[in-house]
Structure formats: C-alpha cells, structure tokens
Design the sequence.
C-alpha cells in the first residue's frame, strides 16, 4: 500500500484535562518533551492550499526510494556487504510470505492468490535454503545479534503453524537470536487465515508483536474491496494475542476506499477504540489501477473525493485523540505508553521499510520473493517472481534482483529527510557536524524551494533549525520532497501515490 496521511486539529486543553480526570487519556512520559502530538490546535488548510500541494510523492521508507533500484547492483555487491558487517552490529530480518487465499482489490503488495497449499510447501523449503545461503555469506554472524524479526506479506498466517515453526527454527540455527525480552518478533495477521488456538503457539515461538489487517468494518465497503471480515473475529484475535503476552498490537485501517463516508468510518473507528489496540495505522488508499491490476475492479466513481477523504481523516483524528491516542506521523497513532510514542518524544524514532520503528536503524536482511533489505545503507531486493527465485536458489545463489549503492550526497539527504519525517524538526548544526558541510551552501537551491512552504505558514526556517508546524505536518511528504535529489526526474512522479 502507498498511504498518504492528513492530520487535523485535535482536542483543546480543557477537553483533554476533563478526559484525563475521567481516566480516558493515559498520561505518560510523552508530555514532557517538545511539541506534544496532541497539541495540534489550529490546523486550517483551505481547499486551494490542499489542491496546491496535492501532488504525487514517496512515503520515504528509504532514501533513495525503491524506484532508484537497478540491476547494476548485483549478487556480488550484496554478498560483499554481508561479509563486511562489523562485529557487534545489530540486525533486523524481514521474511516475506507472498500467499493469500483471497484477493483484496485495493492491495498493491506482491502476493500469490491460491488455495493450493502445496505451493506454500515448496516456498517454505526454498525460503529455508535462502536463509542458509545468506548466513553462509556472513562469517561472523554469531557476533551480530538479530534484534528484530518481521514477517510480512501477503499473508504470513497463510502458512501452517508447523511451517512457521520450521522457518523460525532455521532462523535460530543460522543467526544469533538473543532470548532477552527486548528482541522484537512481529507478524502480520489476517484473522480470517489463522485458527484462534494458533495465537498461543505463535507466542510460544517467540512472537511478541502483531499487526492485524482490518481496513474497514462497514459491510458495503468490505464487499466493494472483497474483504469480508467481522468485528467479532478481529476482536477475538486481538484479545487472544493480549492474553498470551503480545507486547504491542497494531490494527491497520485504510481510508479512501469505495463508499466510505465520515459517518461510516466513524463507526469503524469506534469499534477499533472499543478493542483498544496499542497502535493504529491509518493508510490512505492510493488508486493506481495502471500499476496494480486488482485495483481495476474498483470503480473510481465509487471513491470518496479529496474533500471527503480529508473529512474522513479529520473524523479519525478527533476520535482517536479524544480517546488518548497520539499522532506519531504519516500513518501512525499510538497510546502514550507504547514504545513508538515514547521513542518519538525521546528523539529516538526511526523509519524503515515497515514504517516507523522504535529501534535504531539496524542493518536489515530481506528474505523471500521481492523482499527488501538494507546493509550499511545500501539497498537490495530479491527477485519478485517465485520461479526465478527458485532457480537462483537451485544454483546456490542468493536470489538478489536489484538494488542501489548509496553515495555521500544520498547519506546527507537521507539524514535530513528522515529527521523531518520522524521528528518534524531538523537541527541544522547537527547535520553540519555529522557531514562536515555548510548547510546554507549545500542546500542553497533547496532553501529557495522552501519559500512557498514558509509563506504558507507550513514551516519555520532560521539558521539553527527547520521546524514543521501543525499545518505542515499534514504535508510532510511535500516538504521532504524538496530535499530529494531524484524528484527532478519527472517520469517518476506518476509512480507514487497522491499526497492527499
């Protein structure tokens, strides 16, 4: 998915204090540092301003973005980066499971729709082989603790619990996975594709975080996107995960789907609040039928307008913040006591291909078809189709398809973009010290390009910092795009989703 975030005014302090007294808002360490995410009192973007900035752009889960990946980056490049990992460097592992039993029309993920379980059996066999191939290219891997493991898809719970167990056993054989409670092992779950008793078995395998796909509980919307999923099934999955000790549970929603209105989505939000997940991701649906064939089954005439989408998201903001959730940025909300909220307030929030993360930017290894990873800032992506993927592994080759190196200019721009998108503030002197540059000279052109944002009261710029104000948070992607050296390539624009 290619989410777009729009954020709205929040509750005023009198209401907030009143609700805190009633126990509705849980106060925590998030209230002591900088601009509190619940301090958005006066967002007022007029329609003309929204239209002015409603262009296509990246979500910046990486820089350079995946559109800059190319086949000049080879298996040898990836293998060399694995061999050169310094001892003690912490790692993340992303495991991609492409299978789904049913197609969701909005989906832009790399997936295989099938009810034939034999296909997943072969995939698991080759995935286990790939994990071993990668590990063999890391001579000192026992000195690199695996601190994060994330299962995505597709639908990871399409696999049987026995298959998930086999893969986890291979991961533990090939890598050093600390047993300490700080190791994060997360999985994306479709409640329709997991037996409730298997939630306990996931916990026994070490899984301690879960993300549950929902999108919308409205029956008409569910039918239009071919994802029928009851509130009761979702609730029971979440409660079972909580009962078995999952530390953080996220629910994924999408706004901008066919037939959604502020009223219908408010009903969905109320149900979400009722089951009280720790985090909520609210993605903007990006309708790109020219790129994603399943989306051709969605009629553009049934989609809400830009103004309607803004009204829907305003409803989301009001409901979530009135019930104690903090706006983290882009697509994420979290309870004040959740690690995501605490990391942002402590200036420790980071971003990677899974979105916002609480950990420092660990080197990321991706396994499975189409998976993406990052080693020392250099990006690699696996082959996206299963047959070439199998063929490469049969040749005892890591199934790398493409990637990109990262130059010194990329590193500077990445630091600027990620600071803005994670913290809505850039310490100019910190960038100058880290990269030995004079900011006003290095970014002379970009500072000129920021003038419209200053005039529209979206940002404040002085010699010490760039600070994004409340209205600017709605358009953080636009602000980041000013520092993106690749956005001058106009042919890329249509490959991204709209900002609003």
Sequence:
């Amino acid at each position: 998915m290619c989410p777009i975030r729009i954020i709205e005014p929040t509750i005023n302090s009198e209401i907030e204090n009143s609700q805190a007294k009633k126990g509705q808002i849980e106060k925590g360490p998030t209230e002591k540092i900088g601009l509190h995410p619940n301090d958005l009192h006066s967002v007022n973007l007029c329609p003309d301003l929204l239209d002015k900035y409603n262009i296509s752009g990246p979500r910046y889960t990486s820089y350079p973005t995946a559109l800059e990946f190319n086949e000049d980056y080879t298996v040898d490049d990836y293998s060399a980066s694995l061999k050169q990992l310094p001892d003690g460097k912490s790692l993340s592992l992303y495991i991609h499971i492409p299978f789904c039993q049913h197609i969701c029309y909005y989906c832009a993920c790399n997936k295989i729709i099938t009810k034939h379980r034999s296909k997943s059996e072969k995939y698991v066999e080759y995935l286990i082989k790939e994990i071993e191939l990668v590990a063999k290219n890391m001579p000192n891997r026992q000195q690199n603790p695996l601190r994060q493991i994330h299962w995505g898809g597709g639908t990871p719970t399409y696999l049987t619990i026995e298959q998930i167990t086999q893969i986890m056993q291979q991961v533990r054989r090939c890598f050093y996975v600390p047993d300490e409670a700080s190791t994060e092992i997360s999985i994306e779950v479709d409640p329709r594709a997991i037996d409730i008793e298997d939630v306990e078995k996931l916990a026994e395998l070490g899984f301690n975080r879960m993300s549950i796909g929902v999108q919308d509980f409205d029956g008409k919307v569910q039918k239009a996107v071919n994802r029928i999923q009851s509130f009761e099934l979702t609730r029971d999955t979440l409660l079972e995960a909580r009962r078995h000790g999952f530390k953080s549970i996220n629910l994924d929603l999408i706004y901008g789907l066919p037939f959604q209105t502020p009223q219908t989505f408010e009903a969905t939000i109320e149900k979400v609040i009722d089951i009280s997940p720790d985090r909520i991701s609210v993605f903007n649906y990006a309708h790109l039928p020219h790129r994603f064939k399943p989306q051709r089954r969605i009629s553009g005439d049934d989609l809400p307008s830009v103004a309607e989408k803004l009204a829907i998201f305003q409803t989301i903001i009001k409901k979530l913040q009135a019930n104690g959730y903090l706006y983290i940025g882009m697509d994420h909300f979290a309870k004040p006591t959740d690690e995501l909220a605490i990391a942002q307030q402590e200036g420790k929030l980071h971003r990677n291909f899974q979105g916002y993360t609480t950990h420092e930017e660990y080197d990321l290894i991706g396994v499975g078809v189409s998976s993406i990873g990052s080693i020392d800032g250099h990006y690699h992506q696996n082959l996206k189709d299963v047959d070439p993927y199998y063929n490469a592994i049969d040749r005892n080759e890591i199934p790398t398809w493409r990637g990109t190196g990262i130059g010194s200019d990329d590193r500077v721009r990445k630091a600027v973009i990620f600071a803005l998108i994670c913290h809505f503030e850039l310490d100019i002197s910190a960038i100058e010290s880290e990269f030995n540059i004079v900011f006003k000279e290095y970014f002379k052109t970009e500072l000129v390009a920021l003038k419209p944002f200053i005039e529209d009261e979206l940002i404040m710029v002085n010699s010490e910092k760039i600070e994004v104000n409340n209205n600017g948070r709605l358009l953080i992607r636009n602000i980041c795009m000013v520092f993106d050296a690749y956005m001058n390539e106009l042919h890329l624009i249509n490959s991204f989703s709209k900002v609003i």
User: Anything to note?
Assistant: The first helix runs from residue 13 to 21. The radius of gyration is 22 Å. DSSP finds 19 helices and 19 strands in the chain. The mean pLDDT is 86.
